[in-house]
């Protein structure tokens, strides 16, 4: 079982804003990183650190954190944002890497 | 720009040993923690383990008894061996590079480079 918990599925209307959450004890001391994965492809990093986007990632993506919960927000969701999203950090000991179970985002 | 190229056998029989290698091109090999991650069909990502440039390893406790990750720093390569495979080990296996960092009292860890994945099938 994952030490980071995500909702299995979330949907959003085209152009609207959606928040995907990730909960876990390690998030009290680690910022989560977020990855987008489309079918048949490797995951792609979209948010890391307090709220950093790698080069080439749309500014529609933003991250935030409060207590043991991290959030990925997509503002003005587009059809191409439909994908699986995973959160990630190290565990509370710092010795292992953990992933959330993933959230399937559907853009309606 | 760091890039990863991975290879290895894609079809195994039960009880055999899975062996994959990942080569690192560009960037600083010594900055990263090098991980293996797998994804069974239709399921989420599972971290298998990691190694740093000096050979220090960490493994997922659920797989630790069967996993060995090694490194050849002279070739900028790292490898995965998973022994005694079974049907449950069938998955896409990814290599990836992770970077640790800190801001004040907060830490973060992110994997900004990934291989394309190798599909591993286990069948008798």
> H/E series of chain B, N to C?
EEEEEEEEEEE
From the alpha-carbon coordinates, what is the Rg of chain B to the nearest angstrom?
Answer: 14 Å
Strand count, sense and barrel status of the largest sheet of chain A are: 6 strands, mixed
Q: Report the count of strand segments of chain A.
A: 11
Q: Mean pLDDT of chain B, nearest integer?
A: 96
Strand content of chain A: over 45%
Q: What form of chain A results from the Cα inertia axes?
A: globular
Backbone shape of chain B: globular
Number of helical elements of chain B: 0
Number of strands of chain B: 11
Amino-to-carboxy terminus distance of chain A: 30 Å
Give an overview of the whole structure.
- The complex is a heterodimer of chains A (108) and B (124).
- Chain A has no helices and eleven strands.
- Chain A is mostly beta strands and 108 residues long.
- In chain A, the strands form two sheets. In chain A, strands 2, 5, 6, 9, 10 and 11 form a six-stranded mixed sheet that branches. A four-stranded antiparallel sheet of chain A has the order 1-3-8-7, with no helix packed on it.
- In chain A, 38% of the residues are buried.
- Chain B has 124 residues and is mainly β.
- Helices cover 0% and strands 57% of the residues of chain B.
- Chain B is built from no helices and eleven strands.
- Chain B is globular and about 50 Å long.
- The mean pLDDT of chain B is 96.
- At the A-B interface, strand 4, strand 5, strand 9 and strand 10 of A face strand 5, strand 9 and strand 10 of B.
SSE arrangement:
The complex is a heterodimer of chains A (108) and B (124).
Chain A lengths: L4 E2 L2 E4 L5 E6 L6 E2 L1 E5 L6 E4 L13 E6 L2 E6 L8 E8 L6 E3 L3 E5 L1
Parallel strand pairs in A: 2-11
Antiparallel strand pairs in A: 1-3, 3-8, 5-6, 5-9, 7-8, 9-10, 9-11
Chain B lengths: L2 E6 L2 E2 L5 E8 L7 E7 L6 E6 L5 E3 L7 E6 L4 E6 L8 E13 L2 E9 L3 E5 L2
